[in-house]
Automatic annotation (TrEMBL):
Organism: Adineta ricciae (Rotifer)
Classification via InterPro entries: DUF4371 (IPR025398), HATC_C_dom (IPR008906), RNaseH-like_sf (IPR012337), Znf_TTF (IPR006580)
Comp. bias intervals (Basic and acidic residues): 36-45
Residue spans of biased composition, Low complexity class: 60-75, 111-139
The protein, known as: TTF-type domain-containing protein
Comp. bias regions, Polar residues: 47-59
Molecular function GO labels: protein dimerization activity
Lineage, broadest ranks: Eukaryota, Metazoa, Spiralia, Gnathifera, Rotifera
Amino acid sequence: MDQFSKLPKRGTIQSFFNSYSTNNRKSNSSVTDNTSDSHSDERIKTVSRSVDSEQQQDQISLHSPSSSSRILSPLQNCSTSSNKEENVCLFSSESPALLSPSNKRRQDQTSLSSPKSPRLVSPSSRSSQFVSASPSSKQQQLTSSAAGPDVLLISPIQRQQEQTDLSLSKCSSSLLSSSNKSQLYPFDLSNSLNEPPAQPKLATYPFDKDKRCFHSQWFLQFSWLEYSVQTDFAYCYYCRHFNSSARLNTRNQSDAFVNGFHSWKNAFSKKQGFSKHELSQSHKQAVVNFEEYVLRKKSSSNVIQVLDRSRNQVIEQNRTKLKKIISLLHLCARQMIALRGHVEDASSTNRGNFIELLKWSSSTDPVVSSILNDSAKNSTYLSPQIQNEMISLVASNIRQQITTKIKECMFSLMVDESRDISGNEQLSVVVRVIDLEVTANKDNLYRSTLFKEYFLGFIKLVEFDAQSLTDEIVKFLSSINVDLQNCIAMCFDGASVLSGIHSGVQALLRQQFIPRAIYVHCYAHKLNLVICDVTKAIPYLSEFYSIVNKIYTYFHKSSVTNETFKKVQQQLKIDCSILSNSTTIKNWAETRWDSRWTSIQSIIDNYRVLKQSLEELENEGSDRSIDARGLLLGIREPLFIVTLFIIQQLFGKIKILSDQLKCKISHSTTSKSLDFGKAHSLISDIINQINELRSKEEFSRLFEQIAEFCDVNDVDFNVPAKHRRTKTLSTRFKDCVVMSTIGQRENISSVDEFRDRVFYPVIDAILIEMNDRFSNSNLEIIRGISSLSPDSSQFLEIEELTHLCNMLQCDGQLLKNEIQVLKPMLKEPKLKDIVDLYFEVLPYKQAFPTVISLLVGALTIPVSSATTERTFSKMKFIKTAARNSMTDTRLSDLSIIAIERDFDVDYEQIVDTFAIEHKNSRILLK
């Protein structure tokens, strides 16, 4: 000890290390009984000095992250002495040449205790810093730690872990006696029982004076053997950590494997070698202590695992219950099933569909049974508030999936408004995008899935001016993270507040947010206006429309007339085997675009049934007979029959166009989506076909069908029409130019008169309205999109594409270069439209990015806003007269779940979100 008392201070540790390392290499002495003399130059030594003034600085809180969750080895779990000692390593950390990577790592860990001067710390001294001598001292440290600025929240499981670790350390420390000396070991040995024995396998080991060295094969023979490269000494792993000798004053052979063994020539000696140590009593006791320690560690780990497993089971059960509730809510919302009941308390026999479905399934589903029977009364999670919240989470999940798809894509905006059953104005918001993930195969099976139109939700309107609507639209899109700058087109109906050219919503959006976006007046609404205007322009069509509506009303307002119609219809089917396409009379409705054609077709299919039913009802003698006689005269009149067939033929062609303009895009696998260019091509074809009907030959063929129809239904077409009094022009119009009818109408009886006064005027009115409404709107855009069609004479002409290119903000020069390369590659006649061209160029999207962008933009521009009309149909199924107290938020959420029913919902994600929003929930969810 006199030699160690003369050690230099910290500043001279490096020179001292060099002198000792030189002696270390020159030392040839073996292990002797005098420990301090034989190992003074070969092993690590410590110097202790009193540091009473620095005790509080060296002490480390029990709440240190490195010690709070770790089970300490017995050597680390020793009592804290009253006088703290500062351990100074003889080998300075400033000599990296003799330190292995593992030594440097341990040195860095040790440096945490003294930032200014890294030093070696023995396991016993380290444990005095990390483990308090008594529970009371630990409690004081916990209290002082809690008083600091960084407050640590300890869960019950963590508290149990700390208590178990402390108990285990105390029990393990009873296996050995604390040494008065602080034993210091090299850094390259195992630092704790959490580390395996240090057994480095080197190509060569240092030779001693007898030309002998350590051999790595010895590790295979003695698993407890450790070797320090730093000191060239061998140690016993068990005896180092579980030394059973109370003091090291008495030197024995086993102590050599605690302090270090270097006599390689005696490694297998019967008196002091490895075998001798393995058979020693101290080694056997150390092995027993180690096994007991491992057993205790495993036992404490099992306790924690049991607690964790129990907690995880509770969490999993709660999450399973919540997922079952969410799945049932999702099902009811998808199927538009009402959830709530009028009275939902326990005394009610009908607590609503949601609760009743849970009760019904509880007999076969144990999870549902547990929800109803085992849950606490204040945590059933079946309340209306929780229902609304979970429905909102499901709707938000679907909406988030939609916004993810359109986040980086060009899209078109479609909005429309309608009034719900409560009288609130609801604005429907729909976006149209091109699914860039869709690729074509040889059968073009994915063609119908290329176009996507997504419903985003309803917005309740309080003010109905254009600026208020614009603000609501922008606010809504911003709330769901949809960038309005990616909008390239808008499609609204003809309402002035939406489509006004100066102060409508479309004008305000372009002025304030999206100046390059184009506005498209919904083509389906335009076509409906064509039919309405034609009906008003032709005098007799208004009368014809009135007769058709009266027929529908007559047979539906009374059960007697309806039963008579069904009875006659059944008799004619049995007697004559007449199988009509329509079994009932359809209504001619203003808001149903197909109703004009379907109502006319239903009258043609059921004309004989109508005629015979009216004849029977005419003979009843009641008030109904008067109406029946009037309707019978009306449907027998030749003008009615001729007009019936004229409208059926002309409106039939318009219906084809109408079906294409409002075809269901997202959820139909059979309908072909219509792009902007194809819509104009189809409109032009329909106009040409209607124009071709204006000929004597076409009317002659039509009149032959009328004559055949009259023969089948026993109608005498040659009977003159009812004589009408000829009206003369009023004298007050004597000096006026009359441009419209004033009640004058001549009787029509001949074929030529039917052709010239009915057939031709109807065709002319349709052509005028269609040419007026479908021409000169967005002409430059139409020309650009049309030039992308392979059947166009201006196919891929850069002059025609310039305006469309500028609108989509594409580089004109790049587009020109790409088209020059692309056109020679597109000589195949298989390309029919823009969609075919898109799929043809798609495999080369890296080579033609500008062309792809141009095609995507052209396909994104919508033709009609019919999807918004379909959302209102869903709204009427969801918010009914029996559910008119539904809030607007709930209506929007239920609508998006029902309309976008094809989206899958991740219930695990819903539960996670619910758990985050309810951190103080009464049940564990995370």
